[in-house]
Every structure is written in C-alpha cells, then in structure tokens.
Request: fold
Amino acid sequence: MSSNARGTLFVISGPSGSGKGTILKEILARRSDLFVSVSATTREPRPGEQEGVSYFFVTRERFLEMIEGGEVLEHASYCGNYYGTPRAEVQKRLDSGVDVILEIEVQGAMQIKKSMPEAVLIFVTPPTPEVLRARLTGRGTESPQVIEKRIETARREYSFIDLYDYVVINDELEKAADDMLAVLRAGALRAGAAGRAVKESFGMN
Amino acid sequence: MSSNARGTLFVISGPSGSGKGTILKEILARRSDLFVSVSATTREPRPGEQEGVSYFFVTRERFLEMIEGGEVLEHASYCGNYYGTPRAEVQKRLDSGVDVILEIEVQGAMQIKKSMPEAVLIFVTPPTPEVLRARLTGRGTESPQVIEKRIETARREYSFIDLYDYVVINDELEKAADDMLAVLRAGALRAGAAGRAVKESFGMN
Reply:
C-alpha cells in the first residue's frame, strides 16, 4: 500500500507581482519529478514565447471546441482571451503517480476545487499590502488603466483567498520556496481520500 | 503582518507500534522551537517516570476537579485511568507564537477537533496491516487479553483516520520524520483563519 499511488494535483494562484513564477522556478530546480501543466490560450504569442512551452496557442474556434468536448479541466477569460488547462495530459500524469502543478488564476482554481475537491490549492501573496501595491503599480511606466485593471484583478483574487488550502507569504524567496516545498510534500499526505484508502486496506472498519 | 502571530496546535495520534514516539523524538532533535505538551494522568508512575516530564501524576479527585473547572483541553480514560492535556500551558505557548504538539489518542483528538477546529490532526500508521499486527502482538510475551485489547483499540483508532488532516506512513524512520516536518511546516501555512487575516490586512474585501 502506498499513500501516493495516484499523484496529487496542486493549484497555485496569486496576484501579479506575488512572485509565484519565481518560486515555482526555484522549486522545479529541486523537484524535477513535478509536472507543470502548460495552458492553452487564444491570445497571440508574444516575442520569444514557444508553442507547447509557454502555452499551446489555439484559435478561438478550437478553444470553444475544447470547452464543448470537455477537453479542458478549467478555463477562464481575461482581457478578451481564453485560457485553459488541457485535461488529457494532467490526467495521464496523475494516473501514473506524478504530482501536477497548475499555475492558474482564481476563476479556474475555483472550477478545479469544485470538480476535483482532492486538489490542493495554494495562494501566494507578497508580504504586505504596501509591497503588493508597489508591485502592481510597477515602475510608473504603465498607463493608469493598466494599473487600475491590475488592482481590480488583485482585489477579486484576495476575495477568494480563504477558499484556498494554504497561503504562502513571499517575503524572502528562499523561505517562500521552502514553505512551498513543505506544502507540496504535506499536500500528498493529506488524509480524506488517502485516509479512507488506509482505513480500507487495514480492514478495520 | 505575519502568518504565525499565533502558534499552531498539532495533534499526533496512531496505534501502539506506529512509531509516533520515535518520529517525535527525531523531530524534536531538529525543531527545538516546538513545545510538546505533558499530559496529566491518574495512573501510578512506572519506574523511571518523572513528574512533569513523562506525566503530571495527579489523584483521581484532582483530575475530576480539573475536568469540572475546564482546566483540561481534552481528556480520555484508558484501562480505568484518566489522561488529559492541561489547558493553561498549551494556551500560553500558542498565544506567544509557539507551535504545540499533543501526542494523544483518538478520543482526545476528536475533542480537540471540535473545540479547536484550527488544530492540525496527524495520524501515524505502520506501512501495512501485517506490520501493524506484528507490532500489536509483540514478541509473544504478552497475554492474549493484552493483545486482544490492543487490536480492539487499534480498530477504533483506524475508524477515525479520515477525520484527521494528514496521514504519515511510517515505513522508514528518516522519511517519516521528513514527512512529519513538512506537515508541521505546511500546517502553519494552512489558509482558513490565516487566509481571513490576510484578506482583512490587504483591505480587499
């Protein structure tokens, strides 16, 4: 009997400027066994972005077909574009015992929480509201509209924070990465489904 | 703002022979900041047991007074003796930001879960039912009655396992101790109360 015959699905969200991408990069350097899902999107590739690495770039028609056919685990729209997680690859990895990470925003995270309640949701936040504001407003080069949009998005994101399982506060990168690694390790030990499996296998009902 | 202005309460349970005591000793060697609560009991001290280290040894009258006066966080009876966790010291440590560990059995753990839902419950189990049975039956020196009693107790304990938050499988000590350390670190990052605090402090309701 093993606690992780099946992989665990982890969802990481956090506002722009929370540093979740940097933490993730740090973690992957230490846990090469993790699989990070690549999202599909209808937005245009930016210079340097690679098909299948940054995103799977698809047409609007194809994306709607994916939604219709149940080919995405979750999807969300942002600034007029669709973003979503292709289901098949994630399922395949989980089935083969690999832990999978989705870096997605709140809309999608709530869909995952509903459809896969055993998923572990992690919210990354800067240490203080002041740091968050400084990161959202940037170096003064963005337009007021862009900044306003970011603040509005962050406000919505924080309104969902208590529906997440863990909050990682990104004060120092090293500490935040260690926290995240602990969450990934502990997340695979959460009882519930695992507990029921142990209960059955120990024949002590 | 800090996620752990208050300490986190961890409850560790598991059947006789699960090795939870050995794991705990291993952990304390690496996390000297943790506080392990000392239980009060009405049973007689055994040779080598020290007052205030192994247990606080009290009379039956005093124990009943402690229950009446709300001086214990939880209590249970086993083989005609009472066991309980003195409340004051635990509260003091939690209030000062220290993480506290209670090594108690299922009856008490369920009382804690009810009265302090923010507590993190961890169940330690041997890797297989065969190993559990071997450990419960011991080296053949115990009476059938003692063995029967242990199996009955283990059966009751496993029936509560899915009410725990985490299951640590004690296959190799080193791995189990690392798992437990991850759970202790992640446990302090659980959202819920912490999430609500972040939500308020970020003024994004």
The two ends of chain B are 17 Å apart (CA to CA). The mean pLDDT of chain B is 90. Chain B has one domain: 9-199.
